[in-house]
Amino acid sequence: MTAQIIDGKQVASQMRAELKTEVAELKKENIVPGLGVILVGEDPASQSYVTAKERACENIGIYSDDNRLSADITQKELLALIDKMNNDPKINGILVQLPLPDHINESEILLAISPEKDVDGFHPTNIGKMVAGQKAFLPCTPHGIIQLLQRSGVKIEGAEVVIVGRSNIVGKPIANMLIQKAPTGNATVTVCHTRTKNLAEHTKRADIIIAAAGRPNTITADMVKDGVVIIDVGVNRVDDTTKKKGYRLAGDVDFEAVKEKASLITPVPGGVGPMTITMLLYNTVESAKIAAGK
Ligand code: GUN
Q1: What pLDDT sits at residue 48?
Q2: Closest by alpha carbon to 67, among 101, 107, 103, 97?
Q3: pTM value?
Q4: For the residues 38-49, what does the mean pLDDT come to?
Q5: d(CA 18, CA 25)
Q6: Is CATH 3.40.50.720 correct for 140-274?
Q7: Ligand 1 atom 11: the closest Cα is on which residue?
Q8: Whose CA is nearest to atom 2 of ligand 1?
Q9: Where in the chain is the domain with CATH 3.40.50.720?
């Protein structure tokens, strides 16, 4: 079997077109969704993510307030900027790009963002609501993965899902979302991580594998069953002298070999990545609607 490719770019552009129409409608009522973006330091991957997020905002008509700060900013200065954005009615969503430099206390920063503007879904209030199955801003990457699965016709209910990775951004939240008693949940979920004894033993029985380990070739063809659905969240730079930049992007999955056994697979780039940004736009528009009493 050769897998069908799940085209994240295409799903994302369809959703963005829907959002663009919605933003244009809101504009008629003088409602302009706004996103405050904070990037600390010069990490090249973070810089390119943030640039992509800002371009996407511009493209669908969301106002974005761009703050690129030096790596030596203090905790106090960063908290003051968040406080200003919390109180700015033009800002409906606040995005602090992670990771932050080591001298910054990340959990204190995330806690300072008003839960009503936490469009990343990283505030403990939103995490708690999500776990309890209440309405909340859902973290963008997991929410995007669920959209991709649903829109590709994958049955989540009853599926054996194996997640590889236990990060706060992907592994933990996607596990929670998939076990909810909801049409987008009802899966049987296993979370594997660096201390898992025999990873292949778990991945071999999975109907759906979500690879979010941050390491290339974590999932190889011998580790999956025929017909598996593969969601590859990895974004790794691997040396490639044939490329002008000297590297190429690769996921966590050995794409070429695994696609011969899978039924559906996301590519890297062009799979999960475009969906993460789309769900951020979605949450920002939702936040603006809630703020306007809609
Ligand atoms: N770093 C990697 N992924 C994300 C994300 O979804 N949001 C933020 N704020 N930082 C990230």
Answers
A1: 93
A2: 97
A3: 0.96
A4: 95
A5: 11
A6: yes
A7: 98
A8: 98
A9: 140-274
What lines the ligand 1 site, CB under 6 Å?
95-98, 120, 140-141, 169, 276
* Mean per-residue pLDDT of the chain: 97
pLDDT tens digits, one per residue of 55-110:
999 999 999 999 999 999 999 999 999 999 999 999 999 999 999 999 999 999 99
* Atom nearest to 99 CA in ligand 1: 1
Burial of 169 (0-12, 13-18, 19+ CB in 10 A): buried
pLDDT 10s digits, 159-172: 999 999 999 999 99
Residues of the chain with CATH 3.40.50.10860: 29-117
**Distance from the CA of 89 to the center of ligand 1, in angstroms?**
23
Strand arrangement of the beta sheet that strand 208-211 belongs to = 4-5, 264-265, 229-232, 208-211, 160-164, 188-192
The pick from 40, 47, 49 for probing ligand 1's pocket by mutation, whose C-beta has the most ligand atoms within 8 angstroms, reads: 49
Distance 170 CA to ligand 1 centre (A): 10
- Segment 140-160 shows an average pLDDT of 98
Q: What is the CATH number of domain 29-117?
A: 3.40.50.10860
**pLDDT tens sequence across 202-255:** 999 999 999 999 999 999 999 999 999 999 999 999 999 999 999 999 999 999
How many angstroms does the Cα of residue 171 sit away from the middle of ligand 1?
Answer: 13
Start-to-end C-alpha separation, the chain: 47
Say if residues 128 and 146 touch (Cβ distance below 8 Å). no
Q: Would you please indicate which residues are annotated as catalytic (active-site) residues? A: 53, 97, 120
Q: Please state the atom number of ligand 1 nearest to the C-alpha of residue 98.
A: 10
